[in-house]
Amino acid sequence: DAGITQSPRYKITETGRQVTLMCxxxxxxxxMFWYRQDLGHGLxxxxxxxxxxxxxxxxxxxxxxxxxxxxxxxxxxxxxATRSQTSVYFCASSESRDTIYFGEGSWLTVV
Amino acid sequence: xxxxMQIPQYQHVQEGEDFTTYCNSSTTLSNIQWYKQRxxxxxxxxxxxxxxxxxxxxxxxxxxxxxxxxxxxxHITATQTTDVxxxxxxxxSGSARQLTFxxxxxxxxxx
Lengths: 111, 111
What we know:
heterodimer, A: mainly beta, 7-stranded mixed β-sheet, 4-stranded antiparallel β-sheet, 11 strands, B: mainly beta, 6-stranded mixed β-sheet, 5-stranded antiparallel β-sheet, about 0% helix
């Protein structure tokens, strides 16, 4: 199902550039999350949001900015991309402290 | 902070053999969730366990939540090639506001 969509799916960018990864969900879930996944580190939470205009830091927030002006959208911005931010980024949503539904991921390479 | 450890990190089995992955938390969990991620895919929710000692089955998959609610296991009977992927556990502790994911067990099934 296409309840949560991410764009772009694949992105190559240069060090120092600003990059925004988009996330849109159609379920009206209250919670939205951004995770990054790297070999050997599993899924690490970058930022999350409990509702529109409410965001909070996760485990690895440095170098990232989020906003949530509308319930359905939760963009993630890398203000000045670094090579260490090369990763797979997953957006996810949830109605409560319960099942998390993940998007298909955005593969980001910083060169 | 809360830590969730998973073992083994990798497991290769012959098709038809059984497989078990274990999840251990440093703190008592209010619930435990299991996710499966196919190669190149995104994590997909499998099941949630809430009660101490709870056992749930999904066809060939058996999930167990420990009596102390600090550990869990996933057992697959007679593995098939379709079982290939990485299995993650994830849990909430009473003080944590968000899920903490284990590092995952990557299962390879040899035909």
